[in-house]
């Protein structure tokens, strides 16, 4: 029996809370570290941030022997080629993913979708309905929280709970948590989230500048890249590995 490719989106209506960063970090970690076959459909029109990141990554590798050697060692040691990053319009995202699957040498285990941060964009709701799982990053900022809860509640009431579309699970993720531990305020928020019939993962992601560290000419350890996984020295304390483990448990991979 042919395996099923899971469609997953880190999606929210509020910009700046990490949906694109999570997409790249999780795709790279699962592909290069956990050795799952992943791909990304970047339908965040018009900026297509992940497509542009892949271009920057490739340019940096091609002109810098340090990163060129890193890429060579990764390929020869892990036998892992770079995962595909495809550009698409939101309304064409599912078709783009299906074509990607048809043309793949190895069928992807997971395809991640990076969508626009508004439900008003053409095709976004239809594409969200085609996801198997949706994860919504949220912070303890009141404006962000209200916006994300409104977004998640709308999806839950109009798609998930009534069985429209393919969505098997909708989960929130605490992001940009200040300090090493969550405080009592988060318990209050989680009670509200539960009363709304929504789920939130146990793993929280701390606020850290490391999440913005990409390939540079300075050869510092990289955290966010489409060609390399997060460096081990930066992985510790980021909770990215713990988040990946909980997500894999949630989607039963």
Automatic annotation (TrEMBL):
<dbReference type="Pfam" id="PF01656">
    <property type="entry name" value="CbiA"/>
</dbReference>
<feature type="domain" description="CobQ/CobB/MinD/ParA nucleotide binding">
    <location>
        <begin position="8"/>
        <end position="219"/>
    </location>
</feature>
<protein>
    <submittedName>
        <fullName>AAA family ATPase</fullName>
    </submittedName>
</protein>
<dbReference type="InterPro" id="IPR027417">
    <property type="entry name" value="P-loop_NTPase"/>
</dbReference>
<dbReference type="InterPro" id="IPR002586">
    <property type="entry name" value="CobQ/CobB/MinD/ParA_Nub-bd_dom"/>
</dbReference>
<dbReference type="InterPro" id="IPR050678">
    <property type="entry name" value="DNA_Partitioning_ATPase"/>
</dbReference>
């Amino acid at each position: 029996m042919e395996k099923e490719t899971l469609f997953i989106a880190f999606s929210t209506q509020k910009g700046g809370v990490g949906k694109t960063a999570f997409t790249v970090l999780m795709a790279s970690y699962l592909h290069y570290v956990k050795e799952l076959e992943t791909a990304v459909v970047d339908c965040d029109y018009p900026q297509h941030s992940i497509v542009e990141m892949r271009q920057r990554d490739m340019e940096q590798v091609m002109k810098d022997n340090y990163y060129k050697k890193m890429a060579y060692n990764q390929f020869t040691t892990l036998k892992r080629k770079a995962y595909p990053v495809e550009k698409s319009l939101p309304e064409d995202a599912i078709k783009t993913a299906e074509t990607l699957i048809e043309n793949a040498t190895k069928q992807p285990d997971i395809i991640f979708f990076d969508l626009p941060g508004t439900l008003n964009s053409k095709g976004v709701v239809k594409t969200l309905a085609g996801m198997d799982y949706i994860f919504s990053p949220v912070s303890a900022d009141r404006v962000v929280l209200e916006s994300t809860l409104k977004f998640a509640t709308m999806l839950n009431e109009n798609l998930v709970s009534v069985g429209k579309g393919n969505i098997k699970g909708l989960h929130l993720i605490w992001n940009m948590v200040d300090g090493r531990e969550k405080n009592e305020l988060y318990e209050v928020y989680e009670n509200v989230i539960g009363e709304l019939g929504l789920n939130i993962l146990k793993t929280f992601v701390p606020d850290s500048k490391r999440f913005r560290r990409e390939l540079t000419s300075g050869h510092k350890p990289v955290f966010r890249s489409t060609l390399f996984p997060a460096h081990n020295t930066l992985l510790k304390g980021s909770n990215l590995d713990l988040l990946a483990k909980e997500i894999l448990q949630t989607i039963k991979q």
